[in-house]
Amino acid sequence: VFVLLLFVHSILLVAWNIKSNLPYFWYSMNLSKISSIYIVLALSVSYLSSLFIYMMFSVFLYFLRSSIFFSISCVTHDFAVDFNFLI
C-alpha cells in the first residue's frame, strides 16, 4: 500500500507539472525525490523524529506554495507516522 501511495504521488506530481512551465517541472521532480527520501527516512527512525521531519518538510512545502504537492505530502505524512507508530 505504501509503495502504491508513492507511485500515485509521483504520477500526480508529474501530471501537475506537465501543465506548468518546464524549468519548474524539473525543480519539482527534485522535490519529489527529496520527499521520497524523507518518507523512507521517517520509516527508519522513531515516531517523534519522523513527526519532526515531516513538520519541517510540510512547512518547507507551504512556503513553496505548491498546494497539490503539499496536500499529497500531508497524506503521506499521516500514513508514514501511523505506520511507524505501529512498528
Automatic annotation (TrEMBL):
UniProt keyword list: Membrane, Transmembrane, Transmembrane helix
Provenance organism: Xenopsylla cheopis
UniProt superkingdom: Eukaryota
Protein name: Putative product
Membrane spanning residue stretches: 37-64
